[in-house]
């Protein structure tokens, strides 16, 4: 057991076992997001890894006993044995320590002149373990094939997807209509943006429709679940495929991940389905592109460029105006920060250049003629809108509009979302309202705990009323928030059945895909996150970090 070949082959076993763990972490999906079929295959591979680890522990222990007089080998084999304890905590640590053990052993074997005999039976035993490692590695690399086989077995008797399914069917006129998935009284259905029911409330869960392209044609598909069956459907309710549902109906993110899997693996589409659902702009940041051949130099006006010397040591960058036709003529800009990257210098929506000097509670802008204007205080200028400045006061945690001298001209707000014709704002009473460009309320009847702009491009506001205490399902999704759908004229959309008859009390418990899962323990923090309407302004990330 003390021979050069024996120690070398044990070192190789440890090294390969460490690589096997790395393969497992790299190629296998996260357990929390795995489908039931993936979880089944993963559990099987995990068991095999456990059995190999037990064999590896025994091999390392036996080899250690015979080589304990060599301190390097003793240390190397101890590392491998101790590493195995991480199987129950952080399996990735096993890979690092086993690889380290193998490398140290090989170095010692090459360094020392080992003249001891080699036990061939022991070499065969270790070789079998190495073969087992290779077989499990192959299983990891081809785990998707095993998942697909398992899926086919479970879905025997269901409608299987055919590759030529879309070849002989025409594009559907229904795809010209927006279908909105909503939940009411525990069941999901689809309505249009006037409230008319298009697909009845009959499903335990239904995703939004997403667009695909097949055979030069476009179609809208959605994933719906009823009882123990999932169906990929078209807007005329025709089934594209059906299969056994293995994901809990209340795991909305899990169902969306399943739609993503079908979108990519079955329908052979590229991109993210969630990107199709997020089409409303959440920023109006402009940028000046740098010159093609010069990074960090940006054309500002007819006379001047802006040049940024980026600190290589993490210190303060240098910002300068540089004459277009004479690079030696430079004017320094006194500021702590501008928002830029190698190819973009970010400016306000009116083209003005913002500069930030929060270390002195000063910031301001340069207009298009490079005239400078400064404003003092623990504030940030967010953007310009119709010669008004939107300002955030970090000390008071409020937004307000001001004139060009910084004097307030509007009420104070806790949050704001910018639209083309006005703003969604949270007032100081913690209620969301909608105001126009002159900061007047547009709809007196619209006042909610939350207003989502996710469907603005479809002509709808999603408006939520919170109960005294929000209840959550087992996966952290709210179950008792009531939503209204409000059109751009401020009218609450009336729900109508398939025949067009009005349905009273049209409050919905879930709408579209709002990504409102409770991912934080504190209830107050969840409400704060839930009601925060995402809108990004120039320099905002810098200021948030500065005032933290």
Describe the structure.
With 548 residues, the protein is an alpha+beta fold. Among the domains are: 4-152, no CATH class; 157-277, no CATH class. The chain contains ten helices and 29 strands. The strands form nine sheets. Strands 4, 5, 6, 7 and 8 form a five-stranded antiparallel β-sheet that branches. Helix 1 packs antiparallel against helix 4 (91-111). The radius of gyration is 31 Å and the shape is globular.
What's the helical proportion of residues?
Answer: 25-40%
Number of helical segments with 4 or more residues: 10
Write down how many β-strands occur, each being a DSSP E stretch of 2 or more residues: 29
The fraction of residues in strands falls at 25-35%
Radius of gyration: 31 Å
Shape: globular
**What is the first-to-last residue Cα distance?**
60 Å
By secondary-structure content and strand pairing, the structural class works out as: alpha+beta
Provide the residue-averaged pLDDT: 89
Which stretches are low in confidence, meaning pLDDT under 50 for 5 or more residues running? none
Biggest sheet, in brief?
A: 5 strands, antiparallel
Secondary-structure blueprint:
Elements: H1 4-27, H2 36-66, H3 71-83, H4 91-111, H5 120-141, H6 143-154, E1 180-184, E2 187-191, E3 197-203, E4 205-206, E5 210-214, E6 217-226, E7 229-233, E8 239-244, H7 252-266, H8 273-277, E9 286-289, E10 297-299, E11 304-309, E12 318-323, E13 326-332, E14 344-347, E15 353-357, E16 362-366, E17 372-376, E18 379-385, E19 388-393, E20 398-402, E21 415-418, E22 422-426, E23 432-436, E24 450-452, E25 460-465, E26 482-487, E27 495-496, E28 502-503, E29 510-511, H9 523-530, H10 540-547
Antiparallel strand pairs: 1-2, 1-29, 2-3, 4-6, 5-6, 6-7, 7-8, 9-14, 10-11, 11-12, 12-13, 15-16, 16-17, 18-19, 19-20, 21-22, 22-23, 24-25, 25-26, 27-28
């Amino acid at each position: 057991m003390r021979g050069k070949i024996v120690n070398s082959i044990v070192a190789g076993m440890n090294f390969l076992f460490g690589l096997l763990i790395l393969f497992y972490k790299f190629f296998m999906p996260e357990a929390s997001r795995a489908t039931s079929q993936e979880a089944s295959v993963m559990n099987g591979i995990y068991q095999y890894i456990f059995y190999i680890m037990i064999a590896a522990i025994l091999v390392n222990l036996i080899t250690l006993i015979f080589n304990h007089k060599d301190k390097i080998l003793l240390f190397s084999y101890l590392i491998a044995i101790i590493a195995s304890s991480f199987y129950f905590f952080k399996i990735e640590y096993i890979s690092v320590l086993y690889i380290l053990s193998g490398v140290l052993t090989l170095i010692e074997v090459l360094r020392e002149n080992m003249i001891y005999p080699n036990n061939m039976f022991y070499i065969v035993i270790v070789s079998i373990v190495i073969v087992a490692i290779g077989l499990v590695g192959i299983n990891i690399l081809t785990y998707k094939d095993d998942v697909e086989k398992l899926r086919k077995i479970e879905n025997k008797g269901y409608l299987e997807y055919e590759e030529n399914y879309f070849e002989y069917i025409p594009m559907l006129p229904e795809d010209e209509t927006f279908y909105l998935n909503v939940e009411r009284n525990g069941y999901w259905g689809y309505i249009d943006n006037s409230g008319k029911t298009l697909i009845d409330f009959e499903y335990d869960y239904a995703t939004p429709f997403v667009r695909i392209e097949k055979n030069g044609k476009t179609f809208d598909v959605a994933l719906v679940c009823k009882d123990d069956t999932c169906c990929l459907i078209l807007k005329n309710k025709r089934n594209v495929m059906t299969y056994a549902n293995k994901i809990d109906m209340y795991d909305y993110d899990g169902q969306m991940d399943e739609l993503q899997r079908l979108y990519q693996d079955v329908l052979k589409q590229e991109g993210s389905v969630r990107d199709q659902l997020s089409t409303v702009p959440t920023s109006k940041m402009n940028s000046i592109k740098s010159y093609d051949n010069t990074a960090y130099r940006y054309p500002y006006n007819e006379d001047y460029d802006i040049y940024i010397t980026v600190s290589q040591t993490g210190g303060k960058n240098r910002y300068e105006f540089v004459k277009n036709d004479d690079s030696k003529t430079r004017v320094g800009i006194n500021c702590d920060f501008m928002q830029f990257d190698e190819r973009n210098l970010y400016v306000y929506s009116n083209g003005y250049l913002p500069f930030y000097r929060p270390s002195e509670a000063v910031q301001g802008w340069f207009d298009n003629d490079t005239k400078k204007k400064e404003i003092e205080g623990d504030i940030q200028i967010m953007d310009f809108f119709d010669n008004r400045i939107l300002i955030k006061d970090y000390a008071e945690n409020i937004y307000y509009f001001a004139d060009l001298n910084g004097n307030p001209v509007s009420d104070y707000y806790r949050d704001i979302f910018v639209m083309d014709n006005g703003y969604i704002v949270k007032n100081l009473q913690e209620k969301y309202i909608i105001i126009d460009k002159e900061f007047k309320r547009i709809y007196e009847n619209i006042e909610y705990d939350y207003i989502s702009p996710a469907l603005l491009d479809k002509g709808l506001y999603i408006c939520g009323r919170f109960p005294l205490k929000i209840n959550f399902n087992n996966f952290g999704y709210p179950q008792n928030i009531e939503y209204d759908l409000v059109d751009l004229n401020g009218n609450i959309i009336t729900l109508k059945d398939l025949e067009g008859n009005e349905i009273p009390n049209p409050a919905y418990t879930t709408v579209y895909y709002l990504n409102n899962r409770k991912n934080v323990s504190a209830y107050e923090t969840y409400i704060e996150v839930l009601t925060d309407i995402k809108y990004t302004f120039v320099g905002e990330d810098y200021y948030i970090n500065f005032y933290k």
